Amino acid sequence: MRFLPILALTAAVTAGACSTVGPHGLRDPSPVPEAPERPLDLTPPVPAPLVVPPLPADLLEDGATLTLAAVVDIALRNNPVTRIAYFEALSAAAELGSTRSAYYPRLDLSADLARTKQTALGGQFNYQQTSYGPTIDLSYLVLDLGGRAADADAARFALLAADWSHTAAVQNVILAVQQTFVAYLNSKAQLAAANANLTQAKTALDAATVRHEAGVATIAEVLQAKTALAQAQLDVDRLSGRVLALRGALATAMGLPASTPYDVGNLPGDLPLDFAVKTVEEFIEQARTARPDLVAARFEADQSEAKIRSARAQGLPRLSLGASANRSYYDPAPYADYGDSWSARLMLDVPLFTGFATKYNTRKAKDDAAASAARADTLEQLVILEVWTSYYDLQTAAQLVRTSRDLLASAEQSERVALGRYKEGVGTIIDLLTAQSALADARAQEILARSEWFFALAQLAHDTGIASPNLKAEVSLTEEKADP
To answer: If 0-12 CB within 10 Å is exposed, 13-18 middle and 19+ buried, where does residue 341 land?
Structure first.
């Protein structure tokens, strides 16, 4: 009979579905603890293999030195934070496409198979018939008074917000990598300064030993010099460990194993401290326009406004067009092997009473929109404060660099004078050790001041919304060229 192939296909599909869906869910174990005080003995799942991103070819070369721009580029390609924001933007784009599908007609194809038995006159007459055939349904929303448009607008604003959130995620990663990068350079410079302090402590010990052997210095002076040398060596050991730790942290920020062999340059000594920058008001206005998280918050507020129109449209009339066509085959066929039918309809749906759902949904959408707008306003005030703070932090950092350099120059001269006086026998070991200690502090302060200037520069660029992979590029963005 004709229905047998269809019946066999239906049975095969049903059996396959049951074997892959039903029994698997029924066989899954459902263990529970035996008592509140007795934990269940569970076997942890096997973790997925650790995927190490491929190392750039430049990184594998002997003596390779990475620039800040290269470090940021590696981090952006490997950091999962940027991948999360990227896929969220793709998801928002797919959601926009889904909402726009309401503007297109919908076409569905279905097939049915039915076995019918009829009994008449107390069972004296039995009639069995099998019917099967396809059905095509067409539906189209002609008019809905703004519901589709509101949903599409809300999805479009959500996509724009996701795009700007992705930009914010990228800038956050850039800032974090820059901070780790500068911290590593700072630790390297501090280690170099500590080694210089160690060399000076050895010079002081040698001078004290020579004077003691000549009989013009006591053993106490030698011991004091040895103590200062041991303290200098302790500083070198401590900073050596910190350099290695920050080196691993920077590798991790790039998404690489902490043991990756690489190196970066040194903390720059020449800083453009005297470049002319925009006023703080100009930076604030730029941040209000370009700060990605603020722009994303504004689009989220626009999305909430569109949802008000969508909720209100649920209580308005809707005009729809529908059509269907069907062919049914019969076995046995008393009159014809098959029969065709079709229909077309125009439907007007007018919600008369929905249990006040439309009223409360609209009120909720309005309240959500007001809260979203308030969040955007709050973030704007926070952005202004961040730009204001980072702007003056940069000004303060520049002044600290100048002051620390003056302090370093004075300390270096004082140490040279104290060492010469001690060697000539007209100065004391206390004067020399005090001068060397002041010089060591001055070196550390000058290096820290330079590092803080870079920190402040990167923070200002981030807060303004102009974060760049290269700190020098950020300087050029705020530099004003003199008139020819």
So the answer is: exposed
**Are 263 and 71 contacting, i.e. CB atoms less than 8 angstroms apart?**
no
Using a 10 angstrom Cβ sphere, with 0-12 exposed, 13-18 middle and 19 or more buried, the burial of residue 300 is buried
State pLDDT tens for residues 440-478.
999 999 999 999 999 999 999 999 998 777 666 555 444
pLDDT single digits (tens) 126-135: 878 888 899 9
Angstrom distances, CA of residue 160 to CA of 80, 103, 165, 327, 430: 21, 21, 8, 47, 67
Superfamily, domain 66-97+148-317+357-478: Outer membrane efflux proteins (OEP) (1.20.1600.10)
**With contact defined as beta carbons under 8 Å apart, do 463 and 392 qualify?**
no
How far, in Å, CA of 365 to CA of 304, rounded? 7
pTM, two decimal places: 0.81
Residue from 193, 198, 206 nearest 419 by CA: 206
CA gap 258, 247 in Å, rounded:
7
409 has pLDDT over 90: yes
Burial of 39 (0-12, 13-18, 19+ CB in 10 A): exposed
CA distance 99 to 69: 40
